[in-house]
Write a structure and sequence with these properties.
This protein is of the alpha/beta class and 347 residues long. Helix content is 40%, strand content 14%.
Length: 347
């Protein structure tokens, strides 16, 4: 397919980890068509990762929950009409829907773009709204590698994979003020959107003392407002859960010497930043949704029922049996490897 688009729309509304995985698509599109204007349709909860990004012309906010009730809410009908009109007014030549659900496919169609690309595993009939579908096959593969198939289809190079976040000096200054003298530090990320993905909070708490005594790292918990109680329970030196915007969270993670995290959106930010980390997996599959090309950071017990993708579980053995000693051993390996690299560089 030969294209020369003037305006491109990426549709990837949520979640945080998925938006992070789509960031390299933005980079690749810009590299191949540097004169094209690129927009992104995203939910307000994830917009902080994109607003002000130097490669984006516009960020369109999709109020998923409110607009999803358009059929019984006159106000939502008006807002949905305004959104679709704004998208049509942009006169996109190319739309890439990486969400693959009915609503995202419908919005792609509403733009009126001549070329509307989706993935072959789109659900809820979304494929009916596309002009082209990229074949993602049936093998287990990471979400980002699936997204890259869309670029292959439209003749855009799908490598190299790079992640770029946009933060400001004000974001950095806010984080520095919050941290005070708590440095060097490890960030603990105990929150997740599924309860079954949470490593028991007592295991996080058991990391605080040895990280300080063995590695000289103080502990900072982070996440959203809903993670505040978990942060308190972890007993870290500083609980910043709910006290940072998404951009400030990026700035915080970028300063960390180590990150210990559940399978969560902030974990994917830390992975994209290249931070030393240990990621804890239970009911989900790191091949599909793990830290991209960083499988060495993953700890997961090999038990028959994992991964199960269940949001409810009576025993949660996959994470309860993953004790803090295993994590400390992995941290020790990480820091020893880092010292070996530093010593080799000095020789």
């Amino acid at each position: 397919m030969t294209l020369s688009p003037r305006r491109i729309l990426i549709i990837k509304p949520s979640a945080i980890g998925d938006v992070v995985h789509a960031l390299p698509i933005l980079e690749l599109l810009h590299a191949h068509w540097p004169s094209a204007e690129i927009d992104w349709l995203v939910t307000p909860a994830c917009a902080g990762l994109l607003e002000g990004h130097p490669l984006l012309s516009h960020v369109h906010l999709f109020q998923r929950r409110r607009l999803g009730s358009w059929w019984r809410n006159p106000t939502a009908i008006g807002e949905l009409f305004s959104l679709t009109q704004a998208l049509r007014d942009r006169r996109f030549d190319l739309v890439i829907d990486l969400q693959g659900l009915f609503r995202s496919g419908w919005l792609a169609w509403q733009t009126g773009a001549e070329v509307r690309v989706g993935l072959s595993d789109a659900r809820e009939g979304a494929g009916l709204f596309y002009t082209h579908q990229a074949d993602v096959g049936f093998s287990e593969q990471h979400a980002l590698d699936r997204y890259r198939r869309a670029l292959d289809l439209i003749g855009c190079p799908s490598a190299p994979v790079t992640f770029r976040f946009h933060t400001s000096a004000l974001d950095a200054a806010h984080v520095d003020k919050l941290l005070g003298d708590v440095r060097p530090f490890a960030v603990l990320l105990p929150g997740t959107n599924w309860r079954t993905k949470r490593w028991p909070i007592q295991h996080f708490a058991a990391m605080v003392k040895p990280l300080r005594e063995q590695f000289g790292l103080r502990c900072v918990t982070a996440g959203g407002p809903d993670d505040r109680a978990l942060g308190d329970a972890a007993g870290a030196d500083l609980n910043l859960a709910g006290q940072t915007s998404l951009k400030q969270l990026v700035a915080l993670l970028d300063r960390a010497a180590l990150v210990i995290a559940n399978d969560s959106g902030p974990m994917h930010i830390a992975a994209a930043l290249g931070k030393p980390m240990v990621t804890l997996f239970g009911p989900t599959n790191p091949v599909r949704t793990g830290p991209y090309q960083r499988g060495d950071t993953v700890l997961q017990l090999n038990i028959p029922c994992s991964p199960c993708y269940a949001r409810k579980c009576a025993h949660q053995s996959c994470l309860k049996w993953l004790d803090s000693e295993r994590v400390l051993n992995r941290v020790n390996t990480l820091f020893n490897a880092s010292r070996d690299v530093e010593n080799s560089a000095m020789d």
